[in-house]
Amino acid sequence: MAFTMQIDRFKFEDELRKGVSGKRVLITGAGKDGGLGQAFALSAGLNGAAMVGVHFHSSYEDGFDVVHALRQAGVNAFPVQADVTNLGDLWATRSYVIEQMGGLPPNLLICNSGLTEKGYSFGRALREIPDEPLAMRRARVRQHFIDNLQESRLVLDTKIDGFLAMTHLWAGEAVYHKEPLQLIYVSSRQAIDPGVSVPGYAVSNWAVLQLPKVLAVNLGQNAGLVTSSCILLPFVRTGMTDEYADNPKVFGRWQPRMLETHEAAKAFMQLLARPQTEVDRGLFELRREDPRKLEKRATGYARRTAGMERDRAFAILTL
Questions:
Q1: What's the mean pLDDT in 146-162?
Q2: 3-state class of 25 per DSSP?
Q3: 78 or 253: whose pLDDT is higher?
Q4: What is the C-alpha separation between 211 and 233, in angstroms, rounded?
Q5: Strand 283-287 relative to strand 108-111, pairing
Q6: What is the tens place of the pLDDT at every residue in 53-86?
Q7: How many structural domains is the chain composed of?
Q8: Residue 31 resides in a domain
Q9: Which residues contact 205 (CB under 8 A, 6 or more apart)?
């Protein structure tokens, strides 16, 4: 697949550049053309990052295309191929990434790896086929059930295992090198409003929300060296969500329309531009809606969350 992004859309004003300027950035799941990870890689590289590592698993052609596009724009970018669920794979990339980054580990890690899920509802019967033998129908129902669970398991493995592995690998390197690290975990609006048909995707994105607090506890006295937060994105138009782009029933309860990747990237840059002490252990939900409705909802939300621990409250980002 050819590189299709319009890179000028990912160049932002100076106020948004400060979160990535001069940073050594590594983005997981950044190879797929038209994907969120690719948008984050372009945003970091085109807005002053010192180095950008573009991670991918199987999207070789797309991954090398985005690295080439960044290099053409004068960005110091390099590819990183690894399966985030394979610890041997990840450990093998450690020295390579550090070498590419001038002998130091990344100081901004964006955990974005993930898969989509077709979705299914428990208890819903498969569509009947006329004159289908009963034995054949039973076999088809059984296989459908197994396929659904396997898909959910793959989604869970990629998101949860992948994020945990990257967290432990690079947080450990940050402590060893005594270099500060900012971690951003990319989750989904479905983590807190899952709907009925995407169990693996919803559960894995909910689990991601627990990682900042768990990381802080595990780091102990070194917790001040690593900051982490989550961003919960609504539906964004990517290769994985294109089939839903014209179906408002899918995303209408969260947003009036499907967002574009450069819009999600802009909100992401707004988050990175905030002081790290302000975003540490925070959960940031992106919304796109009428400002008057948003103000009313935010006021009600502030009342409901009064007195909650900071790492459990949601802040709202808007476009």
A1: 82
A2: strand
A3: 78
A4: 17
A5: unpaired
A6: 999 998 889 889 999 999 999 999 999 999 988 8
A7: 1
A8: yes
A9: 159, 187, 188, 190, 191, 232
CA distance 119 to 55: 26
- Which has more pLDDT, 137 or 159? 159
Within 128-260, residue ranges assigned H as helices are: 134-156, 162-177, 199-208, 211-219, 248-251
Within a domain: residue 274?
yes
The whole domain housing 302 covers 7-318
Asked if residue 154 lies in contact with residue 75, where contact means CB atoms within 8 angstroms, the answer is no
Q: How many residues does the chain have?
A: 319
Backbone φ, ψ for residue 79 (5° rounding): -85, 150
Rounded Cα distance between 310 and 95, Å, is 36
Nearest to 26 by CA among 84, 79, 75, 85: 79
Contacts of 200 (CB under 8 A, 6+ apart): 117, 151, 152, 153, 154, 155, 156
**Inside any domain, residue 2:** no
Instruction: Name residue 129's amino acid.
Output: I
**Distance in angstroms (rounded) separating the CA atoms of residues 173 and 109:** 12
pTM of the model: 0.85
CATH number (domain holding residue 271): 3.40.50.720
Highest averaged pLDDT of the listed ranges 137-146, 179-188, 255-264: 179-188
Count of C-beta atoms within a 10 Å radius of residue 123: 5
Contact, 208 vs 163, CB < 8 A?
Answer: yes
Mean per-residue pLDDT of the chain? 84
State the pLDDT at residue 9: 94
Confirm whether 1 is domain-assigned: no
Tokens encoding 159: 């998101």
Pairwise CA distance, residues 21 & 51, whole Å: 10
Q: Is 134 helix (H, G, I), strand (E, B) or coil?
A: helix
